[in-house]
Every structure is written in C-alpha cells, then in structure tokens.
C-alpha cells in the first residue's frame, strides 16, 4: 500500500498533515466456512492487504471521509441517518459505538484499501475496523479488540443489514503476524496456529465478484437456524456428526444438506487445527479439499470459476489441498502449497485458469498479518 499517496491526498484535501494513520486488514479463511454464525470454529489468517486511513480530529461532531476508490462521504455523529453506499460501514460503526455508550469525536480523513471488494476477503470488515480505530484514537478510548470486533459485527448486522457472523471482524481486530487463528465463535477464545513448516498459503483470486450474495447468505443462515431448531439446540455447533447421522433422514432438504455441511465443517476445522499442531500438511490439505466438496455440493455456495481454480490447484503435485474461501458465490480460493514451488504452482494454475475462462487471475502468498493498529502518530490526549 502506498501510504505516501494517502498522506499526499490528505494534505491536498484538508490543507494540513494528518495526525495519525491507522490500518485494519482483510482476511483469508483456511477452513471453517459458514460455521461462525452457527457458534462453531473458523481458522482464518489476516491478510497483508488492508484499509489504511490517514486522519485528524475535528472539534465538531462531523466525520468527513474520502475514499480514494469510492469517493467522499460526510455525516454528523449527532444525527446519523441510514443511506446507501460505502459510508454505511463507517456510519454503522459510529452508531454501534454510540449504542454501547462511547462518546465520539468527529474526524476527517483519507482512506484507501487494497482488499478487493466482493472477493471474499472481508473488505467490509477491514473498513469497519479501520473506522473503529479512527474513532478510538480521536475519542481517546482504549482499544479492546474483541469488544471492537463485536461492535463492528453489530454495525454490519443492524445498520447495514447483512447477517454475518463474527469471523471477519474478529480476525481483522486480532490477527497475529505469521499465524492463523483458531477462533471459537461461541466463546470468542482464540488460539494461534502457525501453518505447517515448509508450506505457503496461496490466495487465488478468480477475479469474479459477488453482487447479489447478501440474500443468499441470509437464506443459508435461516436454513441453519431451522436445522438447529429441529435438533432442539441453540446452534448447529451443538450437533455432533453422530447425532446428525442418527436423525438426518427426518430433516427436509435443503436443510439436511446445509446442516451436514456445517456439522462436518466444524469437525474438519477442529481436525485441521490439530493437524497444524503436529505440522501435518498432508492432513490439513486433505481437510481443505473435503471442505470444498462440502461447500460445492451441500452448502451450494461455489461457482464454476471457483471450482475451476480449486481443481487446477489440486491437480498440482506441490499442492496439499485447496478450497474456495469466504462467503462464496465468487471471489477467492485458497491453497496450501509446498513453499519451494509457490512460483511454479502459481504460474501453472494461472495459465490453466486463464485458458479455461479467459479471465486473468491474481495469485499471492498470505503469511498472516497483525490485526487493526495505529500505524503512526498516536494523538495526545
Ligand atoms: C462472510 C461473513 C462471515 C462468514 C463467512 C463464511 O465472510 O462475513 O461472517 O460467515 O462469510 O464463512
């Protein structure tokens, strides 16, 4: 990310130096998809791509935010009103913080993100957490990452209206450099889990983007809730594979397949963290590939492009396993690859994908980044 360009744009727009720069990363999920809102387990890494925001405090209650990609937005903290567009995320964050009792100062800033939107890499969580950092800095309240993640999720659920789980906000807030994070989405307990020695996590962007996934996402969530109600438990997290197997025949489709994905995905995610604990790349890769089949056939959230990319990756001798990642329907897949062959792997997979689709993919390594932070210039109180 070109921080100098953001600072220059700030100076041009506001005629002064910014007082501080904050950042919050996107994420790639290794395994554990659509398990978070079922109180289950996820295993994401924070990306080395993030939303950066250069800002200074205002003495009034206004927020003036200029996105280098999406344009300018202004709102008043004492009269928040719902509207349309990207500013609903910062507005929703302000609303959630105020609902939780925080007294907020206004600010003006310039932001830019290299997390592509609609790609399944949590560009919205990156924007939410960067905005949250901005409010924390200018308003002088302490940064409690898990609480901030919860409030960002509330903004997304109650202000923006997307019924997402906690994974994206939590990893954007709590990411650890060089590590994946096993998150228990019920207790919010986290555990650092480094990827196996000699392997690399490769993000494989199909460059297709989801547009109407919001409705499909909320529908999947409803189907999972129906299935949990059928089993008489608060969430599908509480259903074991054995309990599912004993009664699955009584469940109507598609709830049966949806539940089978979530119940098996939870088991796979716990097994994946164990495999990582013993440095077992083969087992981890196998679980990732099984996860892809489950998302494709049972949860039905893959796409032809995602299937092609995953297939091309899995066909490489240096690939342990691959799957689509994120909410689904378009965007990115992720592969676990022998580190020594990442260059060759990426070239071959890109060539196959290009040949089959006519689209130019983007492949890059993710090593795990730190969560939301102040990059420089903490304000004086
Ligand atoms: C989106 C949501 C997350 C999670 C994933 C699927 O990224 O924001 O909460 O549900 O989809 O695992």
TrEMBL record:
Residue span(s) of domain GHMP kinase C-terminal: 273-354
GO MF terms, alphabetically ordered: ATP binding; galactokinase activity; magnesium ion binding
Family that this chain belongs to: Belongs to the GHMP kinase family. GalK subfamily.
A GO CC annotation given for this chain: cytosol
Protein name per the record: Galactokinase
Signal peptide residue numbers: none
EC number: 2.7.1.6
Protein's job: Catalyzes the transfer of the gamma-phosphate of ATP to D-galactose to form alpha-D-galactose-1-phosphate (Gal-1-P).
